[in-house]
Amino acid sequence: MNLKHDVRAIARQFHIYGDFQNAAPYGSGHINDTYCVSFEQSGCATRYIFQRINHNIFKNPVALMENIQRVTAHLASKAGENRDFSRRGLTLVATRVGGHYHRDAEGNYWRVYLFIEKAKTYDAVESTQQAFQAAQAFGRFQTLLADLPAPRLHDTIPDFHHTPKRFATFEKAIEEDVANRAKLASPEIEFAQRHKAICSVLLDAKLPERVTHNDTKFNNVMLDDDTGEGICVIDLDTVMPGLAAYDFGDMVRTTTSPAKEDERDLSKVGLQFPMFEALARGYLSTAGEVLTVAEKRLLPFSGKLITFTIGLRFLTDYLAGDTYFKVHREGHNLDRCRTQFKLVESIEQQEEKMNQLVETL
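^ thats the sequence. predicted structure below, dont judge the formating
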């Protein structure tokens, strides 16, 4: 198989023992280049995950890797006597010069993780039990990192979830209308403008800053093949300071609706309350011990805000001429925006019921 990169050469830079066997692209991620790489030593096969960090998205790979090294080391220190600890957290493989990343001759940054066997990710949730397990894993992740020692982690993407700033960028895109599309998106623009007041609610609540994952899609948790347990949170590139509500809100956005993110048939879009209940129960079963009363109270609202924020970003990019998100058809970003805004409406219709559930938990 012809690969984009000389993975065999990269492997020689890391503390890996055994003979190189093969490498193949791995996973469904769209940001980094990821490979599953096999080695053999004395008849035993061992697998690793190699990743080239996309430095066009993550402008400071060194700071990013400092974050990941500190977070994975802290999680490992909490493993105690658990014999299964190497499957319950990502383990970085050191380079031969003692670091945790390698920069190749082309300026690419590489890292290597131990491969976690007998577990996998799923691109779409298949049951409420899976939703419960994923939320429980993300809640456990936040709880274990609640006492991460100073200094503060680096902001790998500054203002990533800062909705007021996203709204200001949206307003500028309307004013400039560089692609002459504002007239084609007038209902969506009006919807966004009607919701401007919700943008600063979480920031105004003065919630405590925490170590958060910031990309809590369902497929960023590995589920054990035998038990179905959520055992390991992956994709740590956006782990940085943030609000706990951001993480829960993105779980609601990406897990509770059965529709695809760019679904054109909006009748398929809507929050499934049993999925929300599974997320709330799973998340609070592990994170509930560290969250404040205000953080818990705002969990249902966070689903609405994060969904609105992502819809706003799709709409802004549509107005700007599709300069950030990859598009595969005319009006793709507008379709994505409409899907998010329809989910916001569904959340609003069930918000009181969602609040009541969280109060009982």
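The longest strand covers residues 44-53.
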